[in-house]
Amino acid sequence: MSSADPVFTEKTTAAEVAEAFAEQVKGKTVLITGTSVKGLGFATARALAKNAGLVIITGRNPTKLKESKDALKAEFPQANIRPLALDLASRASVRKAAAEVNAYAEPLHILINNAIAPMGPFTLDEDNLEVQFSLDHVNPFLFTKLLTPKLLASSTPAFTPRVLFISSMGHAMIPGLDWDHLVHPDAAKHDPVGAYCQSKLANVLAAKELTRRSKGRIQSFSLHPGTIATGEDPTTVASLMEKGIYTAEGKPNLEVAKWKTRDEGGATIVAAAIDPRIEGKGGAYLVDSVIAGDDQVSPFALEPANAKKLWDLTEELLGEKFTFE
């Protein structure tokens, strides 16, 4: 693959994208949330570890976090891998983790919000929000807010910091956000896959509004990594079986989607993080490692007023403003 103008397809792997833009990631600090060894975040970390200056991996389970670090170091002994305890279901944990990162001597160049809540029964978190919306949108929004000064400080004439929100094609499978349900969650209205789609739509809107409000000083992207079977959470598998996305045997249903491997899914994440050709196009949504056409984006997400409304609502839920100083 030529690094001059590589061509990516749905079969491109994360390692191929990282290799094509090895110069772009050299010396960079990348933070990836949700990096258990069977997940997309790990595939992303693995692709970037070879050339990045520092890869910060996160998790709420210390044993799994160590397992991820050990696996990365075994493959790339020279890689600089730093584990960070982070439970995105807890705002206190988010604040503690952000404070730790802000105290690092190294700059922070790229933040990849990848962690995801299980798709399961109606559950409220400690802040009385539906847990998928909270863990997939509200608390990553808070984490990003707390790290924004450090991200902005990494900016140079040749480099603009990037923030990614890992979304899904599912964001376009609903008509829009149910504003009232987000603020006042109702068990009677809960559908696990529908809640997932709501949070993924929020991710697309957040990337657009973060780019706009920062006046492009942060380039933020959302993306669909592909339909990928990580298969490690039983509640998610059960919810997907109910919708026919998984078969009755709990296996990916090959008739409803084109499935990707984790390494193929990680390709679009790596492209959004380091491809220099999308510089200045913050707010865009990527599919198969390239910017997608508007026909692949929810009409609701294309309306700027919705992005502004979600941002304002999220600030209200958190009780604090997001500033760019």
TrEMBL record:
InterPro entries: NAD(P)-bd_dom_sf, SDR_fam. Belongs to the short-chain dehydrogenases/reductases (SDR) family. One of its GO terms (molecular function) is oxidoreductase activity. Pfam families: adh_short (PF00106). Signal peptide: none annotated. Keywords: Oxidoreductase. This is Short-chain dehydrogenase/reductase family protein. It comes from the Eukaryota. It comes from Mycena chlorophos.
